[in-house]
Design brief:
Layout (H helix, E strand, L loop, with lengths): L4 E5 L18 E4 L8 E6 L4 E2 L10 E2 L5 E5 L3 E9 L4 E6 L5 E5 L7 E6 L2 E9 L7 E7 L13 E3 L19 E3 L8 E6 L4 E2 L10 E2 L5 E5 L6 E6 L4 E6 L5 E5 L7 E4 L5 E9 L7 E7 L7
Parallel strand pairs: 2-6, 14-18
Antiparallel strand pairs: 1-9, 3-12, 4-5, 6-11, 7-10, 7-12, 8-9, 8-11, 13-21, 15-24, 16-17, 18-23, 19-22, 19-24, 20-21, 20-23
C-alpha cells in the first residue's frame, strides 16, 4: 500500500527559465491572508509526460513541464493548506519562492496536500497523475481553515453504517473513563488515558479504517452541545489509529495525521453520544496513550 510522502527538496531539471516561470496551464491565483471565500477553488486536469521525479528526487506521479498554477501570496500565512480533490489518484508538487520543491502523495486517501507556514512570494504548483498516461479533472483548493479537508467533512473517513461485524455499538460504558463536553469547556484540551489495541480488525468496517481495537469502545464521549470545531487526537509512542462512531451511526477513522498519531476533526459536530476506539496499527500491540479533545485548531501532538 502506498503511504503518504512529503519532501522538501532542491529544485530539479524541469523548472525552466524565468520567462517560463510566469506561465501556467490553468492561470494565476493571487491571495492574501484572510481571503474569502475560504476555501479558494480552481479547476484543472492532472498529468503529463514528465516524471515528477525529474523535478526533484522522491516526487511521484507524472506532470507537465509547465506548472499547472502560479500562486502569488501577497502576505505571509501562518497556516495554509493546499490540496487537490479528484476521483483519480493524484500527486502534488509545489516550488517555493526559494526554489525548493515540496512533494506530497496520499495525505487524505488518494488526495495530496501540503500545509504549514507560507512566506509571501510566488509559488509554482503541479498536479500530477500517479499513473503514466492518465489525465483526470481535479479541484485545487487553498484554505486557512484547518478543518477544511478533502470531502468537506471530518479529517478521517466517514462510512455509512452497515452490518456490524463485532464491535459493541450499544455499550453504555467504555474500557476507560468517559467524558462529557459542552462548547467552551475548560480546561482545553481535555485529556483521557488508556491502552490501545484489541482483537478486532478495524479494516472490517471498510472505508479505510485501520488498526486493531477492542470490542467495547475505549471511551464514551457525550457532546452536550454542538461544536463549530472539535478535534480528537491521540498521543502515544506506539503507532495508533482512531475509530469513532457518531450518534447517527457513521464511522470516522484516521491514521497518521501527526506522525504516527491519529486525529479526527470537523467544523461541525452535533450533540450526542460518540463511541471512541484507540487502535494499535499492528496486531498484538497494546500501548499506553493519551487522547485529547480541543476546540482550538492550534492544539495538537
Amino acid at each position: 500500500m502506498k503511504r503518504a510522502h512529503a519532501y522538501v527538496l532542491i529544485a530539479g531539471s524541469l523548472l525552466g527559465t524565468s520567462s517560463a516561470a510566469a506561465q501556467s496551464n490553468f492561470g494565476t491565483i493571487v491571495l492574501r491572508s484572510g481571503f474569502t471565500p475560504d476555501p479558494h477553488i480552481v479547476n484543472g486536469v492532472s498529468g503529463g509526460s514528465q516524471p515528477a521525479s525529474n523535478l526533484a528526487p522522491g516526487c511521484r506521479g507524472f506532470v507537465t513541464a509547465q506548472p499547472d498554477h502560479i500562486l502569488n501570496l501577497t502576505t505571509p500565512f501562518t497556516f495554509l493548506r493546499i490540496f487537490a480533490e479528484s476521483a483519480a489518484d493524484t500527486t502534488l508538487v509545489v516550488q517555493q519562492p526559494t526554489g525548493a520543491i515540496v512533494c506530497n502523495d496520499d495525505t487524505y486517501g488518494r488526495n495530496p496536500a501540503i500545509e504549514g507556514t507560507f512566506p509571501a512570494g510566488t509559488y509554482r504548483i503541479w498536479i500530477g497523475s500517479y499513473h503514466a498516461g492518465q489525465h483526470a479533472q481535479y479541484q485545487l483548493k487553498l484554505t486557512e481553515l484547518r478543518a477544511v479537508v478533502p470531502g468537506g467533512g471530518a479529517v478521517g473517513v466517514g462510512v455509512v453504517a452497515g452490518p456490524n461485524p463485532g464491535l459493541d455499538v450499544n455499550a453504555r460504558r467504555g474500557n476507560f473513563r468517559p467524558v462529557s463536553l459542552r462548547s467552551g469547556f475548560l480546561p482545553d484540551p481535555r485529556r483521557l488515558t488508556g491502552t490501545s489495541g484489541g482483537a478486532f480488525d478495524a479494516a472490517q468496517l471498510g472505508g479505510g479504517c485501520r488498526g486493531w481495537v477492542a470490542a467495547r469502545p475505549d471511551h464514551v464521549v457525550t457532546l452536550r452541545s454542538g461544536f463549530n470545531f472539535l478535534r480528537m487526537y491521540v498521543s502515544s509512542q506506539a503507532d495508533t489509529t482512531l475509530v469513532v462512531r457518531t450518534p447517527d451511526g457513521r464511522w470516522l477513522c484516521n491514521d497518521d495525521t501527526f506522525g504516527t498519531n491519529p486525529s479526527i476533526e470537523s467544523p461541525s459536530w452535533g450533540p450526542g453520544r460518540y463511541l471512541v476506539w484507540v487502535g494499535s496499527y499492528q496486531q498484538g500491540v497494546m500501548a499506553p496513550y493519551q487522547i485529547f479533545f480541543t476546540e482550538l485548531p492550534t492544539n495538537g501532538p
